[in-house]
Amino acid sequence: MKIKLDHVSVKFGDLYAVKDISMTIDKGEYVTILGPSGCGKTTLIKIVSGILRPTEGRVFVDGEDVTDVPIEDRDTGYVFQNIALFPHMTISDNVGYGPRVRDLDSEAVTGTSRQYLELVNMLERAGMMPNEISGGEQQKVAIARALASGSKMLMLDEPLSALDARVRMELRYEIRRLVKKLGITVLHVTHDQEEAMSVSDRMILMRNGGIAETSTPLDMYRRPETIFSAYFVGETNFLECTVVGKTKTGKTTVRLRNDTIVRVAKSKFNVGDPVVISVRPEHVYTASDGLPATVRNVVFMGTYWRIRTLSATDDYIEYNIPADDDIPELGDEVFLVFNKKATLVFARPSEGLEEAIRLE
Amino acid sequence: MPEIRLENISKMFGDTVGANGLTLDIADGEYLCILGPTGAGKTTCMRIICGLTSPDEGRIYFDGKDVTDMPVDEREATMLTQSYSLFPRVNVEDNVLFGPRLKGWDEESCQQLVRNMLGMTHMEGRGSRLPNELSGGQQQRVALARALASGSKVLLLDEPLRALDARLRLELRKELKSLAKSMGLTSIHVTHDQDEALEMADRIAVIRDGRFVQIGAPQEVFENPATPFVANFVGRSNIFEGTLVYAGNGTSRISAGEGITVLARDPGYEPGTKVLVAVKIGNTKISHVKAEKPPEPEAKRIEPIQKIPKPKPVLDFSFRGRIDRILYEGATITVEIDVPGLGLISSKLPNRKYDDYDVGEEVEVTWSPSKASVFPYPENGIKDELRLD
Amino acid sequence: MSIFKRIDDLSSSPRIRKGWFSAALIIFLTLIIIPAVFVLLEAVIEWESVSEVLGDPTMTGMIWGAVSNSFSIALIVTILDIVVGLPMAWILVRRSFRGKRYLDTLIDMPLAFPTAAVGISVVMFWGAPEGVAIPGLGLVMSPYLIVILLHTVFTFPYMVRSLAGILDQIDPSFETAGMTLGASRLTAVRTITLPLFRAGLVTGFILCFARSLSETGGTYIALQMLGVSSSFFTGPTFIKYMKDLPGADPTGALIVVSVIMIVLAVALLLVAKYMMNRLRLPWTKVWPVWERRLSKGLAARSKDILTFVFLFVIVILPSFYIFAYLTAPSGVADLNSLFGAIGISFAIAGIAVVFNIVFGIPMAIYIARNGNTRLGVLLDNLVNIPLIIPTTVLGLSLSMFWGSFNLPAGAAFFLVTLGHISFTYPLVVRNITGAISEVDPSYEEVARTLGAKPFRAFSKVLLPIVQSSVIAGAILAFTRSLGETGATISISKDVVTVPVYIMDLIEQGQYYQGAVAAMILIVICFILMFGVRYLTGRRKQGA
Known about the structure:
The complex is a heterotrimer of chains A (360), B (389) and C (543).
Chain A: E1 3-12, E2 15-25, E3 30-34, H1 41-49, E4 56-61, E5 64-65, E6 76-79, H2 91-101, H3 106-119, H4 135-148, E7 153-157, H5 165-182, E8 185-190, H6 193-199, E9 202-207, E10 210-215, H7 217-222, H8 227-232, E11 237-246, E12 252-256, E13 261-264, E14 274-279, E15 284-287, E16 291-300, E17 304-311, E18 316-322, E19 333-338, E20 344-347, H9 353-356
Parallel strand pairs in A: 3-8, 3-9, 6-7, 7-8
Antiparallel strand pairs in A: 1-2, 1-4, 4-5, 9-10, 11-12, 11-14, 12-13, 14-20, 15-19, 16-17, 16-19, 17-18
Chain B: E1 4-13, E2 16-26, E3 31-35, H1 42-50, E4 57-62, E5 65-66, E6 77-80, H2 92-96, H3 98-102, H4 107-120, H5 136-149, E7 154-158, H6 166-182, E8 186-191, H7 194-200, E9 203-208, E10 211-216, H8 218-223, H9 228-233, E11 237-248, E12 251-255, E13 261-265, E14 274-280, E15 285-288, H10 297-307, E16 319-328, E17 332-339, E18 343-350, E19 362-366, E20 372-376, H11 382-386
Parallel strand pairs in B: 3-8, 3-9, 6-7, 7-8
Antiparallel strand pairs in B: 1-2, 1-4, 4-5, 9-10, 11-12, 11-14, 12-13, 14-20, 15-19, 16-17, 16-19, 17-18
Chain C: H1 2-11, H2 14-45, H3 47-54, H4 57-94, H5 100-112, H6 115-126, H7 143-169, H8 172-180, H9 185-193, H10 198-214, H11 217-226, H12 235-244, H13 251-278, H14 288-295, H15 297-320, H16 335-369, H17 374-388, H18 391-403, H19 412-438, H20 442-449, H21 454-483, H22 486-491, H23 498-507, H24 511-542
Helix pairs in contact in C: 2-13, 2-16, 2-18, 2-19, 3-13, 4-7, 4-10, 4-12, 4-13, 4-15, 5-7, 5-15, 6-7, 6-11, 6-15, 6-24, 7-10, 7-11, 7-15, 8-9, 10-13, 11-23, 12-13, 13-18, 16-17, 16-19, 16-21, 17-19, 18-19, 19-21, 20-21, 21-24, 23-24
C-alpha cells in the first residue's frame, strides 16, 4: 500500500506536535522515522494509523483520502512501544483477535493465529499467557497479532525500546526479514539511529515537529545534508574553521583554529565563509605529520579501539584503530589527518554549533 | 577509599533465585559493570551491596569491615536509579542538598556545594527548576549531582541510561564515567547493554541466573569469553556445533558439517569431542571467490585436509556461501551469508566495503583461528545456553 | 529539632519500628474491629432473648421484611449505578471536552450532602408530603421506590468514582490496539477493557452496596415524611424503630437483625472478592456488524444522553431541591440549638479524623508496602469490615461491647466518638494506602542510600508526596462523620449531632426548621469538599 501525507499538521493546544509534513511511502517500502524524544515522530504514525486526526492536511492510502476513516477501518497493524498484548488472553487468542472481530469462523481464527505464530517462531508458546513469556517474545507475538488482522501496512512504534540491548539487536534483523518476506509496507519509529540504519530502506529524520532530512541510510550517513543529521546519525567529529581556498572544480581547503590547513570534500562555499567540517572517526588516521593532538582516553569497543584526543585546535577528536593494533599511551602526542573525500563541509550555524545539534 | 568484597552471597525470593553464590572483589576507585539480561539478578546484587535487600547467606565487606548487617543509611553507598527518583515536590537545589542537609551542613557551605555540583554536571542556572520541568537527560544529571553531593564513596548505578534516547546515551556514557572517576568513587554500574559495558567499564562482571559467569577487563571478556553465552552476549558471535578433529600447535581443526572444516583455538580437548565454535561477527571475514579457480574447488580443497595423516599446521581455511542480504549500519555493514550446512553466518565489515559486495554473490568466509573460541557442547543444549532473555 | 532527632534515631531500630506498627495494630483490633463485631458474641450471651424472638412469628416476619428490603434495595440501586455509571466514568476518563472539570465537581456534589438533607430533598422533589409548603412533582410512589431513588442519589458518585479510578489505570493502548486490529469501539471495550475492569466493578459494587445497606438517617426521614416509618422498614430503620419503641425490651430483636446483616454483608464481601479473582465472563463472541452500528452515531450518542439525563433528573435535581425552601421562608429557625448540634458534630468528627490519621498511617504504610504478604492481605480485608457493616449495626454492637464495661453515664459522647472512629477508619486508611502504593518505593530507597534514617525518609520524602491524599482522606472522613445518623442514634439518644437534630425536627413535623439546618450542614460540607478538590487538583498539577 502506498501512503501519502499532504501538508499534515497536528496541534495540541497552541503547540504544533508536527507541522506541515508531506511525504510518500511506496508499496512494500520499509521507512524509519528517526528523531530525538519529542520530535513528533510517534504523532506522525498515529496519524497514519488513524489513532489521531490531523488538525490540518490529508492522509491518502493508495490514492484514497482516508483522513476521516476511523481506526478500525484503516487496516493498519500497529505495534505499541509497551507491547500491549491483551493480558487476559492467551498468546493464540491475542493473535486471533483480529480475525475474530472480523467475524471469521472459529476454525479460520485458529488457523490464521497458528499461521502467524508459526511465522514468528512462537507456535510452541501458543497456549501461554502474555506475562509468562519474555519481553522479546511478547513483541514477536505483538507483531504476529498486527499482521494476522490482514493489514498490508505495519506501524512500529518504538517496538524495541522496552527490550534489552542484545535482544533488540537480534529482533531488528528478524523483523526486517519477516516484513520483506511478506512484502508489507512498514513505518518504524525509533530514536536509535543504529537500529534505523540497519532495518530501513529509507529514513526520515525529524526534529521539532518537522522533517530534517529524508534519504537512504547510506546517503544519510555518507552525505548528510545538515549538521544535525551528521551528528544524530552515526558519530562524528566537528571542527569549526574558515574556507581559505577554492578551485573552479569545487575542491576546497579550510583553515582550522590553530591555522592548520586541511583539504576537504568538494563544496559550494567561497573563500572567507565560516564553516564547520564533519569527519567520522573511521576517516581520521594518524600520520607522521598533521594536526597535533594529545591522547586523552583509550576505550576498547570490541573489534576496534576508540582513541579520544584533544587537538591543538582545542577540539575533541576521536578515531579508531583495529583491535589487534598497538594502542597509544595516555598523553602521547599524535598527528591526525582526515580522509579528504569523507570530510564534509557545512555552513557554520548562526545559532551556534551546540544549539544546532542539541538533542533535547 | 572503599574496596568492596562480596563473599558467596545468596538470596531467594520465594522460589525465584535472586543471587546464587556471588563472590566479587571491587578495587578502590574501580568502575565495575554488572552486565546481564533481564532477570539475571543484576539489580538484586546491587541492592544487596547498598543494603536495601539483605542476603540469605554470605557477607559483604567495605574496606575489610563486615557491613552485612549495617543499615542502608550508614553505608555511604548511594544509588542512582533508572527513573532517577528525583523528589517531585522540591526543586533541583533542594534535591541536590538532601544529603548535606541531613548532616546538618550550614547554609553557606550548602550553597557552595550546590554551585560546584551543578557546575560539574552542566546544570548551572537550573537550581530552582522542579524535576518535572527538566528533560530526561537533565534529570539524570541532577540525580548524579545529588548522589555526588551526598559525600558517599560508593556509587551504585542501576541502568542509569536506560530511559534516555540512544544518541544521548552515547554522550552521557563518557560524561558519567569521567565524573565518577574524577571524584574517586568506587562505582558499580548495572546494565543490559554490552556496548555500554565495554565502553564504560574497567572490569565487567557478566551475570546470569544469579551467578557471575565471567569477571574480567572488557577486552578479555570480549576476546576470551568463558562460555558460549558470553561469546554471544558481549558482541554478536557466529556460533555453530562441530566435532573436534585435531588439536595441536595452538590451533584446532573442527568438522562443522557437510564438508566444512574450520580452524579455531586449541581448547585442549580430545579429538572426537562435540564442541561449539564461536567467532565474533566482527572477526568473520569474507572475500570474493577468485575467478581462476576450477568450478568445484570446495570439495577438492577440503579433502586433502581431512586425509592428511600427519597434519602440519594449516593456518588458513575457508568455506563458501551466498550473500543473503547486506545491511548498512553506519560505521559498519552487516553481511549475512547463507552457508549450506551451517545456516546463516554474519560478518560485520567496515562501511567502505559496502560497494564491494552484492546480494546473491558467492563469497569465501574465513577467520583467523586465534579469534575463534571453542567450548564443550553445553549440557542443556545450544538453544538454552544462548537464550538472551 | 531535637525531638525529630530523637525520633529519627529511634526509627533506625527495627524493634522500635515493629513496636509502633504493633501499637497501631492493637488499637485497630481492640477499638475498631472487635467492638464492631461484638454483637456476634452477644448473640451467644443473650441466647435466651434471641431464641424468644426467633420463636415469635410476627417478630421474625418484621425482621425478615426489613432485611430483605435492605438487601434488595441495595442490589437494585447498585446495578442501576453500574449500568448508568459506566458510560459516565468513560466520559470522565477517556474524553476531553470543555467544562469537564465542572462535570467532575457536579458528580461529587452529592457526596457532600448529609443523607438526612438528601432524604428531605428527595421526598420533596418526587412527592408532595403533607406539611411541606414547597410544591414537588406530586407523584404517589411506594416507599420502596422512594428509598431506591434516595439511595441512588448518594451511591451514584461512589460508583462513578471507583469505576473512573480503575479505568484511569487501564492503559488505553489496549483498546486502541483492539481497534487497529479492526474491532469497533464497542467490541474493543466489551472484549478487552471490561474483562480488565473486574476489580473496579467489584470495588464499586461493594462500596455502593455497603453504603445503601448502611443508610439510616435519610431513609428514616423519607419514611417519616411519607408517614410509613412504623410500617415499612429497612434493616437500620428497624433498629431505630425498635430502640424507640416504649416498653418492650428490644435486645433480642436488635441482636437478630444485627447478626443477620453482619453475616450477610461479610458473606457478600467474600463472594465479591472471590468473583473478582475467578469470574470469567464468556465475552469472546462478537457480532461485528451490530456492534459496529452501535458504536457510532445515534446509538452511541443516546447512551451518553441517557446517562446525563439520569445524572440530572435522578441525582442532581432531587438533591438540590431542598434549596427551594429559600424561596419560601416560613417561621424562624432555632439557631442556638442548631449551633450546639454543629459544635458536637465538629468535635466528634475532628477527634475521629485526627485519631484515624495518627493510628491509620502506620497501618496504611504496612498494607501498601506488604500488599502481597499474607498479613498484608488479611489486614487489607479487615480494614474493609467497618465499611461494609451497616453503621447502625456497628453502633449497636459497639455500645453492647462497651456496655459490658459499666462505663459512667457521661461516657455517651466518648462512645459515639469511638463509633465514628470505627466507620471513618477505612476511609482514611484506604485513601492513604492507595496513595502510598502509587508512590515508587525508589524515592524512599534513594533517600536512605543518601544517608536518611527511616523516619527522615518518611517525613521528608514520602509524606510530602502523599500529604494531599492524607488531607483528602481526612476531609472525606470528616464529612462522612458530619452526615452520619445511624451509628449515632444506635449508640446514644443523648448525643445530638446535626443529622440527629434534623431527624428530631422532622419527627416533630417542623419541616422548615429541619430544612434550614440541612441547608446549613450542606453548605459546611460543600466548603470542606471544595477544600479537597483544591488540594487534589493541586496534586495533579504537581505530579
